[in-house]
Write a structure and sequence with these properties.
alpha/beta, 6-stranded mixed beta sheet, nucleotide-binding, binds adenosine-5'-triphosphate, BCA_ABC_TP_C, Rossmann fold, 2 domains, L-phenylalanine transmembrane transporter activity, ATP-binding, Amino acid/amide ABC transporter ATP-binding protein 1 (HAAT family)
Length: 242
């Protein structure tokens, strides 16, 4: 598999707080990478560094083998990166369909005519088609999460980044959203998914990475990583017998 995204020794600090400490990893095309770590570990900052809303102090990022370290966030989006936000950020006074259209025409660069049928298709995938004419502000939490996913997909990403999209959902809602994400991944979209709801992640991802204090603690086959004593102790705070 070819690497779609590569981070090489990416470092970023805010004063004394280091959010990325010589962070290196790669994500192959077609892969789903899960990212876990304690609060404040630097997970969202990592997304900001990848999408270009945060500039690294040092290190290099490559997307499709092109050095994007100094590429603007807008250009990275056009190149195929899209993300959802931890706190859904729709245009609350616009309908679900209008939100999708804005994403498809602005982030996805589509003409309005082409975007219409495309958005219907995306809303079908994200199971929001029957809410197309609902105001975004009137959606349930699950609906808002699905709209976050819709808006990211409308940017036509080859790399989809999900930031705690399962947070706050009931068990049944989580199961339903996981199935949607599985289907999206099944269509060949490469995914990086930050999540505290670990069982949701494990249902989808091929690889799991654990970070703490901006450092990569472990990376590999998800269940093996979860069972490793180092991860249990550092991430879960569980004392493991020597
Ligand atoms: N712009 C900023 N200026 C100063 N400190 C920041 C900034 N952005 C993030 N931080 C700090 O960097 C650390 C990492 O934050 P980040 O949001 O990346 O963590 P996280 O792993 O996503 O946490 P959570 O799981 O709680 O969402 C935190 O201590 C945070 O307060």
């Amino acid at each position: 598999m070819a690497a779609l995204l590569q981070l090489e020794k990416v470092t970023k600090s805010f004063g004394a707080v280091t959010v990325a400490d010589a962070m290196s990893f790669e994500v192959n095309a077609g892969e789903a990478l899960g990212v876990i770590g304690p609060n404040g570990a630097g997970k969202t900052s990592m997304f900001n560094l990848i999408t270009g809303t945060l500039a690294p102090d040092s290190g290099k990022l490559l997307f499709e083998d092109v050095d994007i370290t100094n590429t603007s966030a807008a250009k990275r989006c056009r190149a195929g990166m899209a993300r959802s936000f931890q706190v859904p950020q729709p245009f609350s006074g616009l309908t679900v369909f209008e939100n999708a259209m804005i994403a498809a025409t602005q982030a996805g660069g589509m003409s309005s005519r082409a975007a219409e049928s495309f958005c219907i298709d995306v809303l079908h995938q994200t199971e929001l088609l029957d809410r197309a004419n609902t105001l975004a502000g009137g959606l349930t939490l699950l609906g808002r999460k699905r709209l976050e996913l819709t808006r990211a997909l409308c940017a036509r990403p080859s790399l989809l980044m999900l930031d705690e999209i399962a947070g706050g959902l009931t068990e049944a809602e989580c199961t339903s959203l996981v199935q949607t994400i599985k289907d999206i991944h099944g269509r060949g979209v490469t995914i990086i998914w930050i999540e505290h709801v670990v069982h949701a992640l494990l249902a989808v991802v091929d690889k799991l990475m654990v970070i703490d204090f901006g450092r990569k603690i472990a990376e590999g086959e998800p269940r093996a990583i979860m069972e490793s004593p180092e991860v249990q102790e550092i991430y879960l705070g569980i004392e493991v017998d020597a």
